[in-house]
């Protein structure tokens, strides 16, 4: 069952965005609490993050936002492509105009990683039904390496230790 009323659909989209953002924010808060040796707070943030994911997934289902894997991969390619062709280039320009070097670098790293993500989704679409390769993600910039960890991240220059494997 999916929503049909335009106002409810807009509300579900807003709720999905809010719950998704809360999930990511709470996970960042949990990492900081871990760093500050605050286990109760860290666990509370992780529990709430999981609950927010449940809410977000429920809203997305009502929006009929999860389709077949082939359709989901195409949507992912489109979304990543929009990010590296339109969204981030504009944000990079805004940061340059503002003289904000930190934001400019942050947007640039994300923009370069989005290109890799789009190619990864294209490759997944071409290889449906086949075993998955080993994938590793750079903790600094989000670069995804396939097969093996590079000695140096091709996007941010981080050493191989900044990568973690995706299970």
Q: Which regions contain 5 or more consecutive residues with pLDDT less than 50?
A: none
* Approximate helicity band: 55-70%
Annotated CATH homologous superfamily of the largest domain? Ferritin, core subunit, four-helix bundle
User: What shape does the CA trace take?
Assistant: globular
Q: What is the CATH topology assignment of the largest domain? A: Ferritin
CATH architect. name of the largest domain: Up-down Bundle
Largest sheet: 3 strands, antiparallel
The count of helical stretches stands at 4
Quote the average pLDDT. Answer: 97
- Largest sheet, order of strands side by side? 2-1-3
> Terminal Cα separation, in Å?
32 Å
Strand content: 5-15%
**Topology as H/E string?**
HHHHEEE
Q: What is the CA-based Rg, rounded?
A: 18 Å
CATH class of the largest domain: Mainly Alpha
* Class from secondary-structure proportions: mainly alpha
Keywords:
single chain, 167 residues, mainly alpha, Ferritin, Rubrerythrin, domain 2, 3 domains, 4 helices
Walk me through the structure.
By secondary structure, the protein is mostly helical. The protein has three domains: 6-62, Ferritin; 68-128, Ferritin, core subunit, four-helix bundle (Ferritin), CATH 1.20.1260; 131-167, Single Sheet (Rubrerythrin, domain 2), CATH 2.20.28.10. The protein is 66% helix and 7% strand. It contains four helices and three strands, in the order H-H-H-H-E-E-E. Strands 2-1-3 form a three-stranded antiparallel β-sheet. The longest helix is centred in the first third of the chain and has 30 residues, at 6-35. The radius of gyration is 18 Å and the shape is globular. The chain starts with 5 loop residues before the first helix and ends with a strand. The mean pLDDT is 97.
């Amino acid at each position: 069952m999916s929503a049909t009323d335009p106002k409810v659909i807009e509300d579900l989209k807003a709720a999905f965005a809010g719950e998704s953002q809360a999930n990511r924010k709470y996970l960042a808060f949990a990492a900081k609490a871990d760093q500050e040796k605050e286990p109760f707070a860290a666990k509370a943030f992780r529990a709430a993050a999981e609950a927010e994911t449940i809410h977000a997934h429920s809203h997305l289902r009502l929006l009929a936002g999860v389709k077949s894997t082939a359709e989901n991969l195409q949507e992912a390619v489109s979304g990543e492509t929009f990010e590296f062709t339109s969204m981030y280039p504009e944000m990079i320009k805004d940061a340059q105009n503002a003289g904000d070097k930190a934001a400019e670098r942050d947007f640039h790293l994300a923009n370069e990683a989005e290109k890799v993500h789009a190619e990864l989704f294209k490759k997944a679409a071409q290889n449906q039904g086949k075993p998955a390769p080993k994938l590793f993600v750079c903790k600094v910039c989000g670069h995804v390496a396939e097969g093996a960890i590079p000695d140096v991240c091709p996007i941010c220059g981080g050493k191989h230790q900044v990568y973690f494997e995706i299970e």
